Amino acid sequence: MSRKPVPAQSGERSRVELTFDKPQLLAQLFGQYDQHLVALEHRLGIYITARGNRIGLEGTAEQVAMARDVLNDLYARIQRGEDVDTGLVDASIAMASEPVLDGIISAEARGDTPPIMIRTRKKTIVPRTPAQAHYMRELTKNEMIFALGPAGTGKTYIAVAQAVSQLITGSVQRLILSRPAVEAGEKLGFLPGDMKEKVDPYLRPLYDALNDCLPAEQVERRISSGEIEIAPIAFMRGRTLADAFIILDEAQNTTPAQMKMFLTRFGENSRMVICGDPNQTDLPGGVAASGVADATSRLEGIEGISMCRFGAGDVVRHPIVGRIVEAYEGTGL
Fold first, then answer.
1. DSSP string across 11-23
2. Are 203 and 235 within 8 A, CB to CB?
3. Which of 114, 125, 144, 103 is CA-nearest to residue 275?
4. Quick check: 273 and 247 in contact, CB under 8 A?
5. At 247, is the secondary structure helix, strand, or coil?
6. Which of 112, 216, 256, 306 could cross-link 107 (Cys pair, CB 3.0–4.6 Å)?
7. Are 109 and 72 a contacting pair, CB within 8 Å?
8. How far apart are alpha carbons 164 and 122 in whole angstroms?
9. pTM of this prediction?
10. Do the beta carbons of residue 243 and residue 270 sit within 8 Å?
11. Do residues 155 and 310 make contact, with C-beta atoms less than 8 angstroms apart?
C-alpha cells in the first residue's frame, strides 16, 4: 500500500515501523480498501505505508506515537475476537488523544492492564469515547451511578449490558428496568389496549437494548420468570429492590418526588443506574424542576454515588447527531 503523503502539522518529523506477527489479521486491521488506515492518515495528518506485515508511520513525533497506540489497540482487539469498524477506529483515535486516559490504549494493547469491556451472551461491548470508558469503570466500582448527557452517548445501552452481564454471572438475581411514562403530546388513556399495551411503547428502547445483549428467547423466558422486569416508575412505589440491578431511563422526566421515591427503593446487594438528559425534559408545564436535576444537586459528592457526564463529543450514533446536539446546546430545547 502506498499513497500520496498527507500533510502533517509542523513539528519534529518522526518515523516508526510496526511489525505484526499474524498477517492473517491485517485485512481486518486495514479495513476494506484500507479505509481504516486512510481514516488514521486524515484524522492524524500522518503518512502510512504497508509492506507485508510491516506498517510504516511518518509524521510528527506526537502524531506517530498516537497512530502507533491506535493500531496496537485495534490489533489487540482483533486478537481478542472483537469486530473493528470505522466507528471503533474513530473512537480509538479519540481515546488515544484524550489526556485523562494517557497511556490506557498502549497499556491495554500490551496486555499490562485488563481491557475495558462488558461481555454478554450476544456481543462484547467496548468503550468508544473516554467518557464511556470512565462510565464503564464506575459501573464496577460504585453502587449508584448517575449517567447524564444527550441522546446517543450510550448511557442506557451500556448500563443494560452491564446489568445483563451481572445477571448472567449471578452477581445479581434480578434486572429491573424502569422509566417514566410521560406523555409527549398524547394521553395514555387515548391509546388502545390494556395498561401493558399502553406503557410498552415508552419502554421499547429498554427492550431493544436487552435484545441486543441476549437472545430473544432468553429475554422472553427471563421476563416470564421475573428475572427481568420492565415497568413504569409508578410501579416501584412501596417496594425494596434487593439483589437487583436497577436502571431508570429518561430520568429527566421524573419529578423530584418521584426521584426520591425511586432512589429510596435501593436494597442490599443492589446497583442502581439513573440515566437522563437534564437539558431535554418532557414534563408538563407547571412542574418546577426535573427530578434528575434536583437529585444531582443534592447528591453530588456523596460516597458510593458517582456522576458520569457526557457531551456532544460522546455521541456514538451517526456523526450528524453529534453536530445536531451541539447546535441545540444552550437553547433550552
1. S-EEEEEEE-S-G
2. no
3. 144
4. yes
5. strand
6. 112
7. yes
8. 11
9. 0.66
10. yes
11. yes
- 130, 93 in Cβ contact below 8 A? no
Q: At what angle do helices 195-213 and 155-169 cross, to 10 degrees?
A: 80
Please give the sequence-ordered ranges of beta strands (E in DSSP) within the chain, or none if there are none.
Answer: 13-19, 47-51, 54-60, 118-119, 124-125, 144-148, 174-179, 228-232, 244-248, 271-276, 305-309
- The answer to whether 231 and 178 have CB atoms below 8 angstroms apart is yes
Q: Is 254 helix (H, G, I), strand (E, B) or coil?
A: coil
Q: Print pLDDT tens along the chain (333 aa).
A: 545 444 445 557 788 899 998 888 889 899 888 888 988 888 888 899 988 888 999 988 888 888 888 898 888 888 877 778 877 787 777 666 554 333 444 445 445 445 677 877 777 777 878 888 889 989 988 999 999 998 888 899 999 989 998 888 888 999 999 888 765 444 545 556 555 566 667 677 788 888 888 888 888 899 899 999 988 888 888 888 899 999 999 899 898 999 999 999 999 999 999 999 988 887 776 566 789 989 999 999 899 999 999 988 788 765 666 677 677 766 655
DSSP 81-124: T----HHHHHHHHHHHT-GGGTTHHHHHHHTSS----EE-SS-E
Task: Report the C-alpha gap between 60 and 66 in whole angstroms.
Answer: 10
As a whole number of angstroms, the distance between CA 8 and CA 133 comes to 29
From residue 117, give the alpha-carbon distance in Å to each of 113, 125, 162.
12, 6, 9
Q: How many residues does the chain have?
A: 333
> Which position has the grid cell 458517582?
306
**Nearest C-alpha neighbor of 188 from the set 232, 156, 228, 230:** 232
- Angle at the Cα of 217 (from 215 to 222), degrees rounded to 5? 95
CA atoms within 13 A on the CB side of 207: 11
